[in-house]
Write a structure and sequence with these properties.
Shape: elongated
Order of helices and strands: EEHHHHHHEEHHEEHHHH
Number of helices: 12
Structural class: mainly alpha
Distance between the termini: 146 Å
Helix content: 55-70%
Strand content: 5-15%
């Protein structure tokens, strides 16, 4: 007899008049809000603009929901297209059934579209959102608790979850694999945040770390589940998926660190500073970048001074002096010039006196 266990909700939906409020949907929505909130804080800390994460999430979330549902329906097609099944149930997403692999894959396509429209790099955006996605999964797994699904083998441990009799399930106490995965995802989020601060991960490596660490936990948690699934060489399909994706994530992490070390200096283009704006209003980072560019720009070496050139003359232009004016004159020539000047002065004075008379 099990003395302690986690009770399951008697129902996963509460009706507010004609409106059904489903626990599964609430868990998904709460997870999305947490992911966007944390991602926005991390994006701003990286130098991005407030609201950019939410704008791109408008593309990523719908694509992710469709991708998650498609993965689930394709890999568990017998639940919807087998004998005695109704294919319409494939569209009833509120009854549960989202594959994280499809959600991330197709969600990345939506995020790529949003990033292209905003002119920002997808890897930098994914790095900012990575721990938030892990926390969103931690919240979303509690939707399985509301639906009494995705539990593990039977156990009498004090933290076992009690499942009631229902369609495709037997009453009993089982390993709460939804709880195991939820706690694991929280740990993944903490790991990514710590590693990102410690090692300044960039170019998608924080996201790769999230994917690899999640897959490491999903493998052994998936192995404990007893719900119907396809098997390959004695292992559940999702276990193989976790292994393959883990290898890909680690490979990307290593290659990225070698080919593109460090972190992106600019993650989002800033608007130019308008007339009258201060750098704080128009973007202090842009002003500093422009100043550095001017400072580092190669300067044209000054041309040597040209004989006879005055400071006011344009570069390369000679003064209006006669040719050879810049060369030193002999003493005799200087004396002749002085004598001629005196004669000219005397002639001018004589002409002035004649005019007076």
């Amino acid at each position: 007899m099990t003395l302690a266990y986690i009770p399951s909700p008697s129902t996963g939906v509460i009706h507010l008049g004609p409106i059904p409020l489903r626990g599964y949907a609430f868990c998904i929505i709460i997870g999305v809000f947490i992911a966007v909130w944390l991602g926005n804080k991390r994006w701003i800390a990286r130098g991005g603009k407030p609201g950019t994460v939410a704008d791109i999430a408008v593309w990523a979330v719908p694509f992710g929901l469709v991708g998650g549902r498609l993965y689930h329906v394709i890999t568990d097609y017998q639940l919807y297209f087998g004998e005695g099944r109704n294919w319409v149930d494939a569209f009833k997403i509120w009854e549960g059934g989202l594959g994280i692999w499809g959600a991330i894959a197709l969600g990345a396509v939506g995020a790529w579209i949003g990033c292209r429209l905003r002119g920002i790099p997808l890897p930098a955006w994914a790095d900012a959102l990575a721990p938030g996605i892990a926390l969103a999964q931690a919240c979303g797994r509690w939707g399985n608790w509301f639906n009494q699904e995705l539990y593990g083998r039977a156990t009498d441990l004090p933290w076992a979850v009690k499942i009631t009799e229902g369609a495709n399930r037997e009453a009993g106490t089982y390993h709460p694999t939804f709880l195991y995965e939820s706690l694991w995802c929280v740990g993944v989020a903490v790991l990514v945040i710590w590693a990102d601060r410690r090692f300044k991960l960039g170019h998608g490596r924080a996201f790769a770390l999230y994917v690899a660490s999640y897959c490491a936990g999903r493998g052994w948690i998936e192995y404990m589940r007893v719900d119907e699934a396809h098997h390959i060489l004695g292992l559940r399909l999702n276990v193989w998926t976790a292994i393959v994706v883990f290898i890909l994530a680690v490979t990307y992490f290593v290659l990225s660190a070698r080919l593109r070390p460090g972190r992106e200096e600019v993650v989002e283009p800033q608007a130019p500073v308008a007339a009258g704006d201060t750098p704080a209003q128009g973007g202090a980072k842009d002003a500093a970048t422009d100043a550095k560019a001017v400072k580092d720009a190669p300067r044209k070496p000054a041309e040597p001074a040209v004989p006879g050139e005055r400071p006011g003359d344009k570069a390369g232009e000679k003064s209006a002096a006669a040719p050879g004016a810049g060369a030193p004159k002999p003493a005799g020539a200087v004396k002749a010039d002085l004598t001629k000047g005196a004669e000219d002065k005397a002639a001018q004075d004589k002409a002035a006196e004649a005019g007076k008379s």
